[in-house]
Amino acid sequence: MDMAMLREEALGIGFTLAEPMKVETIKLxxxxxxxxxVNKCHAYNTNWSCPPNCGTIAExxxxxxxxxxxxxxxxxxxxxDDFDFETMEETAKIHSAHFVEFLxxxxxxxxxxxxxxxxxxxxxxCQKCTFPDAPCRFPDxxxxxxxxxxxxxxxxxxxxxxxxxxxxxxLTYVGCYLFREVTK
Length: 184
Ligand code: SF4
Known about the structure:
Elements: H1 3-13, E1 17-21, H2 30-38, H3 57-65, E2 69-78, H4 85-109, E3 113-119, E4 144-145, H5 153-159, E5 170-181
Parallel strand pairs: 3-4
Antiparallel strand pairs: 1-2, 2-5, 3-5
The structure holds iron/sulfur cluster.
Iron/sulfur cluster (SF4) binds at residues 47-49, 123, 125-126, 129-131, 136-138, 141-142.
């Protein structure tokens, strides 16, 4: 698998950072899922991508185990001050748009790869998720949040020597793609 090429392609989409990650460094934690259930983000059990609908920790782990390599992608915004909500929102939107754009590119141009996308938050591909009335409208484009799978983002970055905190006044959104060659 040509990770250098995938990294370049991700940077070409517009992510501010893209670095390979080792799948074996991924640890899924029940405590993170318990934090999801507190529902501070108001996304818990409101869509197909978030807990509990993305499966149990054991099911997520089983899915992750099928993959051989990963790529972490980041979008860092520079805030004017701690209350610069406009830049925070704009950075989230840019990250989310790039995340879907790269996923579409991977699906179209890398048919040799099976891809598991894990984003910075709940799947926002549709204006309104079909949950719970109908199945997911775009299963190929759906992405669960990394935290929804039980990952501690800062730990995943640290364990892969990837910078997560880019300094005072910055805000970083993180996602990742896991890959496996389908011919294997
Ligand atoms: S692709 Fe649409 S229907 Fe499927 S999880 Fe995302 S928002 Fe919901």
